[in-house]
Design a protein that fits this description.
Layout lengths: L9 H68 L6 H18 L6 H32 L1 H7 L2 H80 L13 H81 L5 H29 L8 E4 H11 L1 H7 L2 E4 L4 E4 L1 H17 L8 E9 L2 E8 L31 H11 L4 E4 L7 E7 L2 H10 L21 E2 L24 E3 L1
Helix pairs in contact: 1-2, 1-3, 1-4, 1-5, 3-4, 3-5, 5-6, 6-7, 8-10, 10-11
Length: 574
C-alpha cells in the first residue's frame, strides 16, 4: 500500500526555485547589459570625441598663432617666404575645423563656440591679415607695418579668447562625460553585486533544501539497502521524503523481492558460467599450444624436407645433363618437368621456412635507417633491374625502430614484385617514399606496372595466393604474405591503394620514433606533415644518380659496366 504524501514534489520545488532565480538573473542581466552599453558609449565619447576635440582645439590655436606671427614677420620683411607659415596655418586651420565638426553632433555648446571662433578669425583675417598682405605687396613694408596697430592686436586677442572659451567648453564636456562614465560604472558594479547576492542566496536555499529533501532521505534509503546487501533479504525497505523518493523506495523493495526470488537461479547460473569459463580457458590454452605446434611443424617440415628434396633435384639435374638427347623427346620432357617441380618445391619450402622464422628468430629492435636499407635493396635487385630496364628511386626515408634484416626483406620483396609485374614494352619505374601521419610513418612503394584490381586487393597478402599462372609470372605466391607478417611484427599494417591512376601502390605503416613525432609537432602543430608521395625532383645531385646506358646495348646482364653504371636503369636517391 503506497502512503499518500501531501505537498509539492521535488521536481516542482526545484523548478519553482530555479524559475524565480532565473527571472531575477535575466532582469539583472538585461539591466547590466544596458548599463554596460551605456558605459561603453560614454567611454567611447571620452576616448574618441572629447579627447580628440581637446587636442584639436590646441592645434587650432597653434595654427592661428602661426598665421598671426607670419603676418607680423611679412609686414617687417616683405619677403614672400615669411608668408609660408600663414598659408600652412590657414590650411591646418581648415583641416582641424573640418575634423572637429565631425565630432560635434552631440555637443551643441562646443559647436557654438567653434562658430564664434570662426567668425572672429574671419573678421581678423578680413580686417588685419589680408590688408597687411596687400598693402605690403603694393606700398612696401613701412605701409604694412603701419597697419599692425594696437587695434589689430586686440582683434587677435579676441580670437585667442574665443579659442580659450572653446577649450573650456571642450574640457567641461569631457569632465561631464567622465563623470557619467564613473556613475554608470558604479551602477554596473552594484548590479553585479546584486546578481552575486541572488546567486549566493539561491545556492544556499537550494543546498539546504537538497540536504533536507534529498541527502537525508537518500542516506536512510542507502542504510536500508546496505542491510539487504549484507544478506538480510527479508528486510522491508521504506523511506520518507518527496513523492519521488517514496516511489524509489518501493521500487528498490520490489527489486529486493525479485532478487530474493531469483537468488537460487543466479547461483545456478553462476556455477554454469564458471564451468563454461573453465572450458573456454582450456580451449584457449589448447589453441595456443596447437598454433605453436603448427608453427614448429611448419619450421621442422620445411627444414627437414630440404635434404631429400635437394637429393631429388640434384639427381634429376644429373639425369638431365647426362642423358639429354640420348632418350626420346618425351623422356627429356618428363625429366624437365621433374627438375622444374623439384626446383619450385625448393623455392616453396625456402619461402615457407622464411615465413615461419619471422618473429621466431629475433635480434631485437634497433634504430634502422631506411635509406641505408634501400641501398642494400638496390644492390640485391640490381640484376633484376638491369634485365627489366627498371628505374628505382626513393625519397628521403626515416629512421625507425625495427630489425634491419626483416625490413630489408620487406622492401626487397616489394621492389621485386614491382619489377616482376611490369607492363610489356614499358620501362619499369619503382618509387619508395614516406610521410609522417600522426605517430606512424606511412611508407609507399609505387610502380607503373600492370596494377591490381580492387576485388583482389586483400587476397594478394594470403600465403600461396596467386593471381596469375606460374608460366606468366614466376614465384611462389608467398612474398606479400611475408611482407604482411613483417609489417605486423613491427606493429604496423599494410594495404593496397586502389585509387592510384596507374600501376600499383602498396602502403604500409611503421611506428615513428618519439623524437620524430615531437619534432613534427613542434615545427607546425596545425599543419599535417608533408606528403612524401610527391614525385621526386629529377634534378638530383650528380653523385646520387647512376644513369643507364642506352636501350640498344646488347646483352645487358652480362656486359661489363662502366664506372657509375648499373645497366639500363637509374638508381636515384633524393
Amino acid at each position: 500500500m503506497r502512503p499518500v504524501i501531501g505537498g509539492w514534489s521535488l521536481r516542482r520545488r526545484v523548478i519553482t526555485l530555479l524559475t524565480v532565480v532565473g527571472f531575477l538573473l535575466i532582469g539583472l542581466a538585461g539591466a547590466e547589459a544596458a548599463m554596460a552599453a551605456r558605459n561603453r558609449t560614454q567611454i567611447d565619447a571620452v576616448l574618441n570625441e572629447t579627447g580628440p576635440l581637446r587636442v584639436q582645439s590646441q592645434e587650432l590655436l597653434n595654427a592661428l598663432l602661426d598665421q598671426e606671427t607670419a603676418i607680423r614677420g611679412y609686414a617687417v620683411s616683405g619677403d614672400q617666404d615669411d608668408l609660408s607659415p600663414y598659408r600652412e596655418g590657414l590650411a591646418q586651420e581648415q583641416s582641424v575645423i573640418a575634423s572637429m565638426r565631425k565630432l560635434l553632433d552631440d555637443y551643441p555648446g562646443i559647436s557654438q563656440e567653434l562658430r564664434t571662433v570662426e567668425e572672429r578669425v574671419t573678421q581678423w583675417r578680413r580686417s588685419v591679415a589680408e590688408p597687411v598682405i596687400v598693402t605690403t605687396e603694393q606700398s612696401g613694408t613701412s605701409a604694412g607695418q603701419a597697419l599692425v596697430t594696437e587695434s589689430a592686436r586686440q582683434q587677435f586677442d579676441e580670437v585667442r579668447s574665443a579659442v580659450n572659451d572653446l577649450q573650456e567648453e571642450v574640457l567641461t564636456a569631457r569632465e561631464q562625460t567622465a563623470a557619467n562614465v564613473r556613475t554608470s560604472s558604479n551602477v554596473l558594479v552594484v548590479l553585479l553585486i546584486v546578481a552575486a547576492l541572488v546567486v549566493v542566496i539561491a545556492g544556499t536555499v537550494l543546498l539546504l533544501s537538497l540536504d533536507r529533501m534529498v541527502v537525508r532521505p537518500l542516506t536512510g534509503l542507502a542504510n536500508q539497502v546496505r542491510e539487504v546487501a549484507e544478506g538480510d533479504y527479508q528486510h522491508r525497505i521504506a523511506t520518507v521524503g518527496p513523492p519521488e523518493f517514496i516511489q524509489l523506495g518501493e521500487d528498490v523493495d520490489a527489486m529486493r523481492q525479485k532478487i530474493a526470488a531469483d537468488l537460487a537461479e543466479v547461483r545456478a547460473a553462476r556455477e554454469r558460467i564458471e564451468w563454461v569459463n573453465s572450458q573456454l580457458q582450456k580451449q584457449a590454452e589448447e589453441l595456443t599450444r596447437s598454433n605453436r605446434d603448427l608453427e614448429q611443424f611448419a619450421y621442422v617440415a620445411s627444414h627437414d624436407l630440404q635434404e631429400p628434396l635437394r637429393k631429388v633435384a640434384s639427381f634429376c639435374q644429373l639425369l638431365q645433363r647426362r642423358y639429354a638427347g640420348q632418350l626420346d623427346e618425351r623422356a627429356d620432357q618428363y625429366i624437365a618437368f621433374a627438375v622444374d617441380g623439384a626446383q619450385r618445391m625448393q623455392r616453396l619450402i625456402n619461402d615457407l621456412l622464411a615465413f615461419s622464422r619471422i618473429g621466431r628468430l629475433t635480434t631485437g629492435f634497433v634504430e634502422v635507417d631506411l635509406n641505408k636499407v634501400m641501398g642494400d635493396v638496390a644492390g640485391q635487385t640490381e640484376a633484376a633491374r638491369q634485365y627489366a630496364d627498371a628505374e628505382l628511386t626513393w625519397a628521403e626515408l626515416p629512421t625507425i625502430s625495427g630489425e634491419e634484416p626483416l625490413l630489408t626483406n620487406l622492401l626487397a620483396n616489394l621492389v621485386s614484385n614491382s619489377i616482376k609485374f611490369r607492363r610489356p614494352d614499358v620501362p619499369s619505374k619503382v618509387h619508395v617514399s614516406a610521410r609522417l601521419v600522426g605517430a606512424e610513418w606511412e611508407i609507399t612503394c609505387q610502380d607503373n606496372g600492370i596494377g591490381i584490381e580492387p576485388e583482389f586487393a586483400d587476397k594478394i597478402f594470403v600465403i600461396f595466393q596467386r593471381l596469375h599462372s606460374k608460366d606468366a609470372y614466376p614465384g611462389t605466391g608467398i612474398g606479400l604474405a611475408i611482407v604482411k607478417k613483417i609489417v605486423e611484427y613491427h606493429g604496423g599494417r599494410v594495404w593496397v591503394d586502389t585509387d592510384v591512376p596507374e600501376g600499383t601502390a602498396i602502403r604500409f605503416t611503421l611506428p615513428a620514433l618519439p623524437e620524430d613525432v615531437a619534432a613534427a609537432a613542434a615545427a607546425d602543430p596545425a599543419v599535417e606533415p608533408t606528403d612524401g608521395d610527391a614525385t621526386p625532383s629529377t634534378e638530383a645531385p650528380a653523385e646520387l644518380i647512376e644513369q643507364a646506358d642506352g636501350p640498344d646495348q646488347p646483352d645487358r646482364a652480362d656486359r661489363t659496366l662502366e664506372s657509375g653504371r648499373t645497366g639500363d636503369m637509374k638508381e636515384t636517391v633524393g
